[in-house]
Amino acid sequence: MKDLKTYLSLLIFVLIFQACAQKQTGQTDQKPREIWTVEKANKWYEQWGWLRGADFIPSTAINQLEMWQKETFDAATIDRELGFAEGIGMNSMRVYLHHAAWQQDREGFKERVKTYLDIADKHHISTLFVLFDDCWNPTYKTGTQPAPKPGIHNSGWVRDPGDLYHQDPKLVDTLEVYVKDILTSFKDDKRIVLWDLYNEPGNSGYGNKSMDLLKKVFEWGRTVDPSQPLSVGVWKRDLKELSDYQIQNSDVTTYHNYGDPKDHQFWIDTLRSVSKRPLICTEYMARTRNSLFSNIMPLLKKENIGAYNWGLVAGKTNTKYAWDTPLPNGDEPKVWFHDIFNPDGTPYKKDEIDLIKSLTGK
């Protein structure tokens, strides 16, 4: 009898320990939920009104790691620059995370995310977080980040997880814990609009190699089942298998378009022909491609589509320079590709600011 009591005590201890460990890491035995119904998605969208904002990184950060690491997390700049956004009537920002910053300092990373959310909320700005990304530099390293290369668009931006996912089979375990930890920690935060699980899967020549992680991140997200919807934006129609999977598995339909009004309208009509869910454009506005505030933002408002342009304040990312038109001497581009403000808050174009404020009612 004594041995039985000892065994039962040990068993209870082990079960409690496992439950605590699962809670901390986001690991559970819960089965992934189903995709939201169209009715639930549309009801969810109604509560937000017209979402309008930008893809945001403070001007003092070259990439996601510099934004989120303890040594370079710049709350003062974030506060000031989100104030610029509030001043022109923007009410939401799309913000990239990175698993390496979380892995380096898990609890500190989450505290900084909370700090960001507090600052954004003070400015009446909601947040759309991005977890993974297939764009720009294939490798990354925590610690001090490189200086910007003069005149080169996003010279220091890093993928997540990038090439390492295809080289280290064990990385997937870390990524699962990361996704589940972040989603579990913020699953009921009403300041978060939605979770953009994976930016532009298949970019950088990966193609369908990204399908494995795409499927996994949807599964992990549905297992946690946050109160916010899950989505992965369609960005290239040629990647049909990936695009179809993204549309079929996203609670709300998100997409990127840097084309002119005719092309953008075609995308809207095409997506609405295959999805009755709310539409949110999570990237647009490239001036040299005739994707402008003057001809796209009114279209998105008329169509009741969430509108997030790339770039708020010109800074270390160098996104005022075009993707395919580098200026290695660092000269000012004749036309800014992205971004709205200079670091001191003066606008690139006052007429754009006036237009944005007229559309937002500011």
Automatic annotation (TrEMBL):
Residues 1-21 form the signal peptide. One of its GO terms (molecular function) is hydrolase activity, hydrolyzing O-glycosyl compounds. The lineage of its organism: Bacteria, Pseudomonadati, Bacteroidota, Sphingobacteriia, Sphingobacteriales. The keyword Signal applies. This is Glycoside hydrolase family 2 catalytic domain-containing protein. GO terms for biological process: carbohydrate metabolic process. It comes from the Bacteria. The keyword Signal applies. Residues 177-292 form the Glycoside hydrolase family 2 catalytic domain. Keywords: Signal. It holds the Pfam family Glyco_hydro_2_C.
